[in-house]
Amino acid sequence: MELKYLNTVRMILETGSFQEAARRLHYTQSTVTFQVQQLEKELNVKLFEKLGRRMALTQAGRDVLPYMDGVLDAAAALLDYGKREAELKGTLTVGFLESLLIYKTPRILREFREKAPDVQLSLKIANCYEIVAAIASGAVDVGLHYNVTKQSLSVVTEPLAQQPSSLVASPELAEDERDFISPGQMKDAAIIYSEEQSVHSRILNEYMLRKNIKMKHSMQVQSIEAIKLCVAGNLGVAFLPRCAVEDELRDGRLIELDTEIEGGTVCAMLSYHKNKWMSPAMRLFIELVKKSFLTTEPQ
Question: With a threshold of 0.85, does the pTM exceed it?
Answer without folding.
Answer: no
